[in-house]
Write a structure and sequence with these properties.
With about 250 residues, the chain is of the alpha+beta class. About 45% of the residues lie in helices and about 25% in strands. It is built from six helices and nine strands; from the N terminus they run αββββββββαααβαα. Strands 6, 7, 8 and 9 form a four-stranded antiparallel β-sheet that branches.
Length: about 250
Amino acid sequence: MLVSGAGVALGIVALRGLTTVAPGEAKVLQFFGRYTGTVRTAGLRWVNPLSSRRKVSTRIRNHESAVLKVNDKDGNPIEIAAVVVWQVEDTARAVFEVDSFVEFVHTRTETAIRHIATSYPYDDHGADEMSLRGNADEITEGLSAEIAVRVEAAGVRIVESRLTYLAYAPEIAGAMLQRQQANAVVAARERIVEGAVGMVDMALARLSERGIVELDEERKAAMVSNLLVVLCGDRATQPIVNAGSLHH
C-alpha cells in the first residue's frame, strides 16, 4: 500500500510536468526563480514539474499609435500617427528585462515617432531636402530603424512601420493650404511661360523661314509682346482685326 501511494505521488508529480504549447506562443521556464529555458515547439511537452511557466505570444502584432501633436523641424505644429508591426523574438528578454514588453513597445514607438517628426520639415517648400510629406518611404524606413533600436532591450523585432496620418495642426492648416496653393500657381505659371516662349520662338522662326512677312526689330518686339499676352493670360482674349495696312 505504501509503494502504491508513492507511485501515485510520483505519477502526480510527473503529470505536473506536462505542458501544452500552442502554435504562435512559447513557454518561459523558471526553476526557483532562475531562468532555465523557453519551450517554443508546439504540442504536448514535458518539463521539470517544479518549474514555473509563463506563456508569451510570439505572434506578429500591430500597434497603431494615437494621433500625436508635435512641432516639425521648422517649428510648425503637425499631427502624426503610425502603425508598427512587431514580434517577440527573444522571449527571455521580453519577460525579464522590462515590466511589460507590450507597454514598452507602445511607449518607445511614440517616442520614436515624436523624434522623427521633429527631425524633418512637413514639406520641403521647394528646397532640396527630405520632408515628411515628400519622402514617405525614406521616413518610414528611418522610423522602423529607430523603433528597432529603442525596443531591442525587450527582445522585440520590428517587421515594418508606416505613417497612417500626417497633417498640419488645425490652427495653421488654412494658412499652409494657401501657401501650397500659391506655390502650385507659381509652378504652373512658370510652366506656361516656358511653353509660351518656345511657341513665340517657333512662330518667329517659321515666319522668317517661309518668308511670309518681313518684320523689323520693333515689330518683332510688338509681336512677341502680343503673343505672350495671349498665351500667358488666364482669361480668353478678344482679337481685334486690323483691316488696314500691316503698319496701321
